[in-house]
Structure formats: C-alpha cells, structure tokens
Design brief:
This protein is of the alpha+beta class. It has one domain: Roll (Pnp Oxidase, Chain A), CATH 2.30.110.10. It is built from five helices and ten strands, in the order βαββββαβααβββαβ. The protein is globular and about 45 Å long. The structure holds flavin mononucleotide. The site of flavin mononucleotide (FMN) has 21 residues, from strand 3, strand 5, helix 2 and helix 3.
C-alpha cells in the first residue's frame, strides 16, 4: 500500500471512531530515544487557524517525559490486526521495557519525530500549547470525581503538520 500525504481538510474518517475506537499511539522522541503509549481520549479540530489534535496525558506516563522535552510528536492509527499491540502499549510502561523494539515496529523519523511504517494513518505534529487540567475548572464535578485523584491529565494542543494515509 502506498503512503500519501493529504490535507487534514480531506481526512474523511470519524474522529470519534479513530480516537475512541481504533485508538492513537502517541509517540515522543528525545535525544535519539523514543517511547509511545496508547491514547483513546482526544480530538481533532481547528485552533488558532490551524488543523490540530488535542491529546491528554497523565503525569505518570513515561511518554509524557518525551512529549514535554521534544518540540513535536506523532499520532499513529494502526490497522485492526494491531489491537493486541495497542493494548500492550496501553498497559506496559516504557520505563520497564522498550515497547517499540518488542513490538517489532519499523521506525521512521521526520524532523525529530518517530513514526511507524505499519500505521495506516500518521499525524506528524508540533506542540502549540500544554496545560494541566485542574479540579476548579470542572463544571460537571462528577467527571472530576470519577476520573481523578491528583493525577490530572495535561492537555496538549498540537498542530497537524503532516497527515499521511495508506491507500
Ligand atoms: C485503550 C487505552 C486508552 C488509553 N488512553 C490514555 C489517554 O488518553 N491518556 C493517558 O494518559 N493514558 C491513556 N492510557 C494509558 C496509557 O497508555 C498507559 O498507562 C501506558 O502504559 C503508558 O505507557 P508509558 O508509561 O510508556 O508512557 C490508555 C490505555 C489504554 C489501554
């Protein structure tokens, strides 16, 4: 299958499906090392006149260290046959194992961002904004009570600089 770069405006998949059901692999790279984690919360849209993705990372994730240090990151969507691998990236920490190596993924690089040949959709992104969520800003307090003790996600707004799809 050939990889094609398309405009985010021509991306015709449901973000609800892609993020909520297929899930994203969020991958950060810093000083030649990379780590990734599964994410199923987030969004795609427009902010500050740019095509963006919104992702939410808890402070405990090893991936957060990479994302915080680097200027960019990649978001990858894999075909259904990689479901087991996505569960692995979402349950094991890169602090304990080299997940990318163990998964046997083919690593590619673009401007300090690690991404993968096996992905069916790849978003190569540049960080625009990061802010930790906080208890006092919840309007529906039940979301706060249900999801948090003191491990509030940091929200990242990232510009989608390149969107690659396999056809
Ligand atoms: C389906 C699924 C979705 C997840 N979504 C998120 C998410 O959106 N944000 C987050 O911080 N963690 C999320 N996680 C948890 C991380 O992927 C998990 O803690 C992972 O092991 C962190 O790896 P790391 O320590 O190598 O970064 C999700 C896990 C699964 C299985």
């Amino acid at each position: 299958m050939a990889v094609k770069e398309i405009s985010p405006f021509d991306f015709n998949e449901s973000p609800f499906r892609v993020i909520g059901k297929d899930w994203l692999l969020v991958t950060g790279e810093y000083e030649g090392k990379s780590n990734g984690m599964t994410a199923s919360w987030g969004g795609l849209g427009i902010m500050w006149g740019k095509p963006v993705a919104y992702i939410f990372i808890r402070p405990t994730r090893y991936t957060k260290e990479f994302v915080d240090k680097a200027d960019g990151l990649s978001l990858s969507v894999f075909p259904e046959e990689y479901r087991k691998m996505m569960n692995y990236f979402g349950t094991v920490s890169g602090r304990d194992e080299d997940k990318i190596k163990k998964a046997g993924l083919t690593v590619l690089h673009d401007n300090g961002r690690t991404y993968f040949d096996e992905a069916r959709v790849t978003m190569l992104c540049r960080k625009l904004y990061a802010q930790p969520l906080a208890s006092e800003f919840f309007i529906d307090k039940s979301c706060d009570e249900k999801w948090y003790k003191d491990d509030y996600h940091t929200m990242y707004v990232v510009e989608i600089e390149k969107l690659l799809v396999k056809e």
